[in-house]
Amino acid sequence: MKQRISFYPGPSQVYAEVPIWVQEAYDLGLLSANHRSSEFMSMCEKTIADLKEKLEIPANYGVYFTSSATECWEIISQSLVRRSSIHLFSGAFGEKWYGYARNIHPESIAHPFDMNERIAVDQLKISKHTELIALTHNETSNGTQVDMQTIKHIKEKFPELLIAVDTTSSLGGVIMDFSLADVWYGSVQKCFGLPAGLGVMICSPRAKDRALAIGEKKHYNSLLSIMQQMENFQTNYTPNVLGIFLLGKVAANMAPIRQTHDRIHKRYLDFNQYLTKKTEIHHLIKDKNLQSHTVFPIVADPNIILKLKSQASEHKLALGSGYGDLKASTFRIANFPAVPDEGFDRLKLFLDEHLS
Ligand SMILES: *Cc1c(COP(=O)(O)O)cnc(C)c1O
Prior knowledge:
By secondary structure, the chain is of the alpha/beta class. Helix content is 40%, strand content 16%. The longest helix is centred in the last third of the chain and has 20 residues, at 257-276.
């Protein structure tokens, strides 16, 4: 029987090994283990060590657990910003992040840019009251990415500001140069191929120093409390132990990020090549330098999209819906590591059969 394959960009295709790993967690007694126990602490320590190794996270960066990427939006404003952050965004997720920041600090600044344009770093002006620059590395709603070169350029132009990067739909899928920014975060239901309910937040020494300097401890998940507990591989509250265990399994079993990156990049090039042969569907973003490698936004006539989505589900393929304003005019294809290569073969065959 053909397995159902999901191309939704979150929640997304989970690894086929998930049921086996859940069973293993149960058999180990981890699911009933106290989160102050040595079993939990060593499992947590190993998960972080494997993540650091596989993703090439610098040794002096901290890795912390939250409940979601959304929670990271709040933690950043609460614990790393006193007054104002500036939000550079071209799509719905970056804009949402700005909304959360503004709720906490009304002086937060929005700097929207067109999804078909690169961030004009040279023209960027930032007031002296701004403490942090917020970027969405992979804008899941419109399938664009901000490349590392641009982040580097921003860092060079504003060396005294903290930089925080939302990598929710790219962390674990493509290489990041973590030295270029201070906070990188994501959640596990995208490129880690796991069920939702866990966020990962990666902090530079500079971010940790800022949290200490601000000393904010008003929230159950203030970064300072998270950092202090994590010195013992513990959390403030009873965490998603199963989620951390599953993330540890993915980290232990995944290829080093350079290999994963190459596999994802090859599939991206291959699918773009495929799209050039189709007349009824095309990529939403023309400039290749702006295209995401992990989320492909595909434009088509709304009637074709409706038809394709329902026919795909008969073939046990789930095409991702368009997001927000792009709901009717696009569908999305997640190019996440847990989607098997065979899934893309099936997708192309399906599209060949249903399009001219
Ligand atoms: C999915 C997503 C989020 C939200 O993730 P949650 O785990 O639901 O909080 C935030 N930012 C981006 C870019 C996303 O793709």
